[in-house]
């Protein structure tokens, strides 16, 4: 396998096109930047931030949160009937980010627990992210749930003699 083939490994399955239009995305001024923003129809402003893991610059933690002042903290209940379009927008942001960081080997994200559900090992939001990842990821990537985290990782490439 050549290096260019390895770096151009598709993140999403072949032919994947979201059935839901994402919200307009504010991309970083520097294409390789890590902070993206969008606003929903109801006025909620979100930030999607990519952080590098301490042990590997090629591994990413994806954090998305509400920046609107309507909520006391970023983990408040924000369901305004926009969840599927929000997820479509986050998926598009991950696609854009991966295009500019094609050497990335993993993406990790987790969903916060709703009040009263913190006794569960995995949050309902994390399970939703897991189902979406299973639906859209290219077969060259493996998807696992580890506690309350969804981890999408490139499968090891077999080398031929």
Number of strands: 7
Into which percent range does the helicity of residues fall? 10-25%
- Number of separate structural domains: 1
SSE string: HEEEEHEHEE
Radius of gyration from the CA trace?
16 Å
Oligomer: single chain
Distance between the termini: 11 Å
**Which regions are unreliable across 5 or more consecutive residues at pLDDT < 50?**
1-6, 73-77
- Main sheet strand line-up: 1-2-3-4-5-7-6
Question: What is the count of helical runs?
Answer: 3
Main sheet summary:
7 strands, mixed
Task: State the CATH topology.
Answer: Aminopeptidase
User: Which structural category do the helix and sheet elements fall into?
Assistant: alpha+beta
| Name given to the CATH architecture | 3-Layer(aba) Sandwich
CATH class (first level) name: Alpha Beta
* Overall body shape: globular
**Approximate strand percentage:** 25-35%
User: What is the residue-mean pLDDT, rounded to a whole number?
Assistant: 84
Supply the key terms.
alpha+beta, 7-stranded mixed beta sheet, 3 helices, Aminopeptidase, disordered N terminus, 161 residues, globular
Describe the structure.
The chain is an alpha+beta fold and 161 residues long. The chain has a single domain (3-154), classed as 3-Layer(aba) Sandwich (Aminopeptidase). It is built from 3 helices and 7 strands. The protein has a 7-stranded mixed β-sheet, covered by helices on one side. Strand 6 (141-146) and strand 7 form a beta hairpin. The longest helix has 18 residues, at 83-100.
């Amino acid at each position: 396998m050549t290096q260019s083939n390895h770096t151009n490994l598709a993140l999403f399955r072949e032919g994947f096109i979201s059935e839901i239009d994402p919200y307009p995305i504010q991309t970083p001024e520097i294409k390789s930047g890590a902070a993206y923003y969008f606003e929903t129809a109801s006025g909620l402003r979100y930030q999607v931030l990519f952080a590098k893991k301490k042990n590997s610059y090629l591994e990413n933690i994806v954090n998305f949160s509400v920046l609107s002042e309507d909520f006391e903290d970023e983990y408040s209940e924000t369901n305004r009937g926009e969840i599927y379009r929000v997820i479509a927008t986050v998926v598009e942001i991950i696609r854009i980010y991966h295009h500019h960081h094609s050497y990335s080997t993993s993406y990790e994200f987790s969903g916060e627990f709703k009040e009263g559900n913190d006794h569960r090992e995995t949050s309902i939001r994390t399970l939703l992210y897991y189902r979406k990842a299973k639906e859209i990821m290219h077969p060259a990537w493996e998807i696992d749930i580890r506690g309350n985290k969804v981890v999408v990782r490139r499968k090891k490439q077999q080398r031929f003699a």
